[in-house]
Design a protein that fits this description.
142 residues, single chain, mainly alpha, 5 helices
């Protein structure tokens, strides 16, 4: 039972961080001028990536462990949805991330801003995946 509770905690922490980015941090950063926008996004992304990637790995492994303990298929469903953040990030968001990281601050402008607006929408899908996984883990524990 503890493994499932910890999987829920990891998914909820991930979802809270992801939602914070989409609801508070990214909209606030979009209020900056183009150069400051890109300058703020670069280190923020690097720190957020490390934290969120770790939470997905830990939460997925804990959910799989909960499945083996409880033999409840819903843990595997939640684990699969939670883990989907990895391929989605690598295939769906990383191309935009690499382009943004390659832009020198001196070249920030309307194009980098448009890419960061797009990035916000792409990131919202990560928030949704985390929220769905969190709800499934909660369902398993009820």
């Amino acid at each position: 039972m503890l493994t499932g509770q910890l999987a829920l905690v990891a998914a909820a922490a991930f979802t809270g961080a992801a939602l914070y980015i989409n609801i508070a941090e990214h909209p606030a950063r979009l209020g900056l001028d183009d150069r400051a926008l890109l300058q703020q996004w670069k280190p923020s992304y690097a720190h957020g990536y490390a934290m969120q990637a770790s939470l997905v790995i830990v939460g997925t492994l804990l959910a799989v462990a909960a499945f083996f303990v409880q033999h409840d298929w819903r843990w595997l469903l939640g684990a699969a949805i939670f883990f989907a953040n990895w391929p989605y990030t690598l295939l769906g968001i990383m191309p935009t991330n690499h382009k943004l990281k390659a832009i020198p601050l001196e070249e920030a402008g309307p194009q980098s801003r448009a890419m960061l607006v797009k990035w916000g929408y792409l990131h919202a899908a990560r928030s949704a995946l985390g929220a769905v996984a969190t709800l499934i883990f909660l369902w398993c524990l009820l």
